[in-house]
Design goal:
Blueprint (H helix, E strand, L loop, with lengths): L1 E5 L4 E4 L12 H20 L7 E5 L5 E6 L6 H14 L3 E3 L14 E3 L5 E3 L2
Antiparallel strand pairs: 1-2, 1-4, 3-4, 3-5, 6-7
Length: 122
Amino acid sequence: MLTWYERDDTENVFLIPNGMPVAERRRDYYWMVRDKTAKILEANRAAGIAPPYTYTLIDADNRVVGSGTFDTADDADDIAWLGCFFGETTGFSVAMPSPLAGESYGMRSGVVDATGKLQERP
């Protein structure tokens, strides 16, 4: 079960069957995100940052539209799969904080401004 909250406090719940494959068109993206996520999880462990890890959902206009928390048991494979799921079903990108300079999950990092838009780092 996957639960996330949108800006208006709407709760979204999806039931995802075990073993559900990544969409064919997202496989390259999956492997890129999986590799990046593995580095972030290792950096979190080294920095003493323990799960659960949070994520932010970003729409096509770079507006923060929601957030959630990965399950404590989620590993790099699970998190990359969830990134593909959000892209496929909602069109949202996922941003995950990272202790690595210049690194964030899904290649999205920056600061949320007063209007709720993500101002990406160069």
